[in-house]
Design brief:
single chain; alpha/beta; 8-stranded parallel barrel; 13 strands
Length: 412
């Protein structure tokens, strides 16, 4: 068997809004319930992870995984501007304690796309005060939770708005987007509604990069100086047009945040597929390729390419903080994991400092505007009973994690 380094992190990930349920004070909850909306259905109870977290963490550990990446929810912790909930902070202490009780390393994300509705009413990340508000939240969370946190990321895929700017057709009506935002603003009694997914990408990027550095400093000055990084969305960018276009896309969507990551403690890489870059925008997948439920090309080899690209630009350790596939066919998930991890092994063999693989996701959950149809989980969730059922892919990844090694190919 091909081995991985001692101390390698093997894990699965979730995000608060996608699994906790009833995130009533968040901007996304508002957007899910106005009409018109881009969301095919509301999140509602989600996976009820807010009350079932202890069992879910024990389930993760029982698979053989040693790391749980999850987000804490700003909208729960600070439901009104300047009003922090001690009860919610204590809840997240219990989540962290449940990790330690099962010998699971907790990696905490402070911001995974969702914001408090009051923050959206101020204009969200487009407001020049946004950084101050986020840093205050980061400092408060770190002071209350930091002694139990092992790793943290400030933001999840903060470069995504810049990346979406390269998509030729997002498949959404700008009129619907505008109407949805206007109705959301009225719903919270404001004249504006700033959402991470819908804002001015360049303005968001400037404000969030500055906030990342300041929040990282605030978190590291707390009760425990744990490593703080940032997780970025990366694609295996392949040229179907001029090389200059691919380089321009990288310069816009990746390089500013890679520079920020290079001044941090680590970089989290989040990769799902490859992308063909055309003469002006991204091109859709070719007609004869296998597609996932997200409409992505099934391309596990993207992970190796993205690790190599990022490693050439950042002088810090790399963790794969998300990698997975949306499919009802769990055999294809197993194949995806096998090929993706083979790529990680190739990178390690070449001396690249990769220190962990965290799968997306632990369980089937709420996949943003697409609702509950896409299935990313290692664990299935019955939407009526909330019963969990481990898939063969969960056992497969757990088998690898327990042995810290890949099985030999058949025939060897």
């Amino acid at each position: 068997m091909a081995g991985f380094p001692e101390g390698f992190l093997w894990g699965a990930a979730t995000a608060a809004h996608q699994v906790e349920g009833n995130n009533l004070n968040s901007d996304l909850w508002v957007l899910e319930h106005v009409k018109p909306t881009l969301f095919v259905e509301p999140s509602l109870d989600a996976c009820d992870h807010y009350s079932r977290f202890a069992k879910d963490i024990r389930l993760l550990a029982s698979l053989g995984l040693n790391t749980y990446r999850f987000s804490i929810e700003w909208a729960r912790i600070e439901p009104e501007r300047g009003c922090f909930s001690r009860a919610v902070l204590d809840h997240y202490r219990r989540v962290l304690a449940a990790c330690h009780e099962t010998d699971v390393t907790p990696m905490v994300t402070l911001y995974h796309f969702s914001s408090p509705r009051w923050f959206a009413g101020l204009g969200g990340w487009e407001n020049p005060l946004a950084g101050d508000l986020f840093v205050r939240y980061a400092e408060r969370a770190s002071r209350h939770l930091g002694d139990l946190i092992s790793y943290a990321t400030t933001f999840n895929e903060p470069n995504l708005p810049m990346l979406l700017g390269w998509v030729a057709d997002l498949g959404v009506s700008l009129l619907t987007v505008r109407s949805m935002r206007n109705h959301a603003a009225r719903a919270i009694g404001s004249d504006r509604f700033g959402c991470f997914f819908l804002g001015d990408a360049e303005k968001l990027q400037d404000h969030m990069i500055a906030a990342h550095h300041r929040a990282r400093a605030a978190m590291k000055s707390g009760p425990r100086a744990f490593p703080v990084g940032v997780s970025l969305a990366l694609q295996d960018e392949q040229m179907d047009g001029p090389k200059s276009q691919r380089d321009r896309k990288r310069a816009e969507a990746y390089e500013p945040w890679l520079e920020a990551a290079g001044a941090s403690d680590f970089l989290g890489i989040q990769t799902y597929t490859r992308q063909r870059v055309g003469k002006s925008k991204d091109l859709p997948p070719e007609s004869d390729v296998e597609l996932t439920q997200m409409g992505y090309e099934f391309w596990p080899e993207a992970l190796e390419a993205c690790i190599r690209y990022a490693a050439g630009r950042v002088p810090v350790p790399i963790y794969v903080t998300e990698n997975g596939v949306a499919t009802e066919d769990d055999e294809r998930r197993i194949e995806y994991i096998r090929r993706a991890l083979a790529g990680v092994g190739n990178c390690l063999a070449d001396g690249i400092d990769v220190r962990g693989y965290i799968h997306w996701s632990l369980m089937d959950n709420f996949e943003w505007i697409m609702g509950y149809r896409p299935k990313f989980g290692l664990v299935a969730v019955n939407r009526e009973t909330q019963e969990r059922a481990v898939k063969p892919s969960g056992r497969y990844l757990g088998w690898i994690a327990r042995r810290n090694a890949m099985p030999e190919p058949a025939g060897k």
